[in-house]
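Appendix B, Record 12. Input sequence as logged:
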Amino acid sequence: MTTTRTQQVPNILIVDDTPANLQLLAGMFTQRGCHARTVLSGELALQAARIEAPDLILLDIAMPVMNGYEVCEQLKADAALKDIPVIFISALHETIDKLKAFSVGGVDFVTKPFQLAEVHARVETQLRIRRLQLQLSDQNGRLEQLVAERTRDLAKAYERLRESGRLKDDFLAMISHELRTSANGVLGIGHLAINLCQLSPEHTVYAALFEQSSLRLLNLIEDATLIPNIGQITRMTGTAISFPDILDEVAASLPDIRISIEPATALRMFLVRGHLCATVHLPS
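Logged structural output:
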C-alpha cells in the first residue's frame, strides 16, 4: 500500500564517528519500526541527506574534519534540507555547547552517555512535530489550490456577467431606437389623422387624449433609453465662463429670439463660476 509523506515509515539519519554508537542507535530504531541510516562523518551525512532527505537527523558534535555544528549550519543553509529537525547527541555537556547547538538550528540536545528510552522519547516528540508540520503544509497547499480555483471561477463568472451586461445594454439600446422610430411614425400618422378631422367637441377631447397618450409613450421610451446608462456617474469640475461667452451661447441656442446687448470692455472682466458636467461610464 502506498503511503503519503505524513504516514510513511520514519527515516532517521544517524551521524557519529563511533561505530558502536551507530550500531546501538540503529538497532533500537529498527526494532521500533523506523528506517535507520548511519554515516561516520559530517561530509557523508550531507551527501546522504541530499540523496534522500531524512525525517530527522541524530547528529554528533565532536567529529574530525567537519564537526556537528558545521554540518547543521550547512543543512540549514540548504533550502531543500533546512526544515529537517536535528537532535544533537554529544559527550559535550557545558551550557555553552548546548546554546551553540540551538543557535545553529538544533531542536534538541542529548548528552552522552545516553539512555535509549530517552533518545527514543525525544526523537518521537520531534517526529510528531514534523508530521504535524507536514500535515499543515499539505492542508495549506490544498487550501491555496482551492482558493486559486475559486478565484479563477469567480473571474470567469464576473467576465460572463460583464458580457451579459454589455449584451443587455446593446439590446436595450437597439430596442429603444426601434421603439422611438416606430413611435414617431405612429404618432406622426396620428397627428395627421387628427388634423384632417373636422373640428368638433369630440375632436377636441380625442385630440387631448391623443396628446396625453403620446406624451406618456414618449416619456416611456425616454426612460427606456436611460436604462443602459444606469451605473453611470456625473463628475463635475469647476470652471469659469466670461459673461459675453454666455450671451453668445444663449443667442446660438435661441435663434428665433433676437438678443441685442451693446458690447462693453468691462463685461470681459466678469466671470461666471459654474460646473462642467462629464459623464463617466462605470464598468458593467
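Residues 116-196 form the longest helix (81 residues).
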